[in-house]
Write a structure and sequence with these properties.
Number of strands: 11
Strand content: 15-25%
CATH class of the largest domain: Alpha Beta
Shape: globular
Largest sheet: 5 strands, mixed
CATH architecture of the largest domain: 2-Layer Sandwich
Number of helices: 11
Structural class: alpha+beta
Distance between the termini: 79 Å
Bound molecules: ligand 3B9
Number of domains: 2
Strand order of the largest sheet: 2-11-10-3-9
Radius of gyration: 22 Å
Order of helices and strands: HHEEHEEEEHEHHHEHEHEHEH
Length: about 325
């Protein structure tokens, strides 16, 4: 086979495998069996080994490529990775709503999102290609963990449109992956992880990407950092754009027209939380209109247009139950 024919075959396999990977890891709607996917991937690896000049950065074979690192390089975020103020009860949420309405008037729409219990990360794309991924760090300086993030199959190596965009999200370990990992650790007499968040943090801190790849991490994206470059009017429009570009966003989000609706949404998740495939530690509420976000502004650390409602920590409930049972 000459290089022209190989180029055609490689492009066809890369496109097919990236589409199958998107359906499986982002949409959770696989259209082919694992066996068929693995067979096509083996074929692509063979072609790329024969014609290495035809290997491209977005090829699915490039996900677990990185060498073992000595350390992680520091990286300065183009815009700060802000943190969220907390609300612990209904009154805190009503106070937040009152502050918002005093500042921007009464025609408000909120977006409610699950607060995934993982690690905040940022992903930078240039003309649609994944360039760099980093941890939050102190909000201004993080660590470059690009090679480890490439092993997360739901992170696209190439977007569906050639955007230059920086997105923020939460990397996490699904509950099933956490239980399987701890089972192996116990079998090997190793210290198990206390919770999926610690397991995800430990996995992303691995200097060898091959170890990170084994940890089956996942991600939900929840913000665009360079909104001024992207022409959207609302936060929910921004999230729909992320879906269109091929990112994985959390589909449980809900646009609410009032704080009453927000309170109902929060209440509904107290019961539904145990059935989720991943841990959440709260609900994030954001003012939807970007113009109103601008008017509300931010403090040095966090936006005034968003707040995180935190569920009571579960261990507190268990402890209280134990005390009650023991008396
Ligand atoms: C709202 C924001 C803080 C992200 N937004 C930002 O980090 C951010 C960063 C610069 C911004 O604007 C600036 C641009 C340039 C300079 C300064 C600020 C605006 C928002 C946030 C934080 C944590 C979240 C979480 N755990 N779960 C969900 N679901 N959403 C979350 N959202």
């Amino acid at each position: 086979m000459d290089v022209q024919q190989a180029a055609g075959k490689i492009t066809e396999l890369q496109t097919l495998l990236n589409q199958y990977g998107y359906e499986y890891y982002v949409l959770d709607q696989p259209s082919v069996s694992d066996a068929e996917y693995d067979q096509l991937l083996r074929e692509l690896i063979e072609y790329e080994d024969q014609f290495p000049e035809l290997r491209t950065p977005d090829s699915p074979t490039q996900r677990v490529g990185g060498a073992v690192l000595e350390m992680f390089e520091k990286v300065e975020h183009t815009s700060p990775m802000l943190s969220l103020g907390n609300a612990f009860n209904e009154q805190d949420l009503r106070d937040f709503d009152r502050r918002v309405r005093q500042a921007v008037g009464d025609s408000i729409s909120y977006v409610c999102e699950l607060k995934i219990d993982g690690l905040a990360i940022t992903l930078q794309y240039e003309n649609g290609y994944f360039k760099l991924g980093a941890t939050r760090g102190d909000g201004t300086i993080g660590e470059d963990i690009t090679e480890n993030l490439k092993t997360i199959k739901s992170i696209p190596l190439k977007l569906k449109e050639p955007y230059t965009i920086e997105v923020r999200g939460e990397a996490f370990m699904p509950k099933k992956s956490f239980e399987a990992l701890n089972k192996v650790k116990e079998e090997q007499n190793e210290e198990p992880f206390a919770n999926p968040r610690n397991a995800a943090a430990g996995s992303l801190r691995q200097l060898d990407p091959k170890l990170a790849a084994k940890r089956k991490l996942d991600i939900f994206l929840y913000a665009i950092a360079n909104l001024e470059d992207i022409g959207v009017e609302s936060h929910s429009e921004g999230l729909d754009l992320l879906d269109r570009l091929g990112f994985k966003t959390n589909q449980e989000r809900k646009t609410c027209a009032s704080i009453e609706e927000v309170l109902e949404y929060v209440e509904s998740w107290v019961e539904r939380r145990p059935n989720l495939a991943y841990d959440i530690d709260g609900i994030v509420i954001k003012v939807n209109s970007l113009q109103q976000q601008e008017e509300l502004g931010r403090t040095a650390k966090s936006p005034r247009w968003s707040i995180a409602y935190k569920f009571p920590a579960e261990e507190v409930i268990t402890t209280l139950l134990n005390i009650e049972l023991s008396v």
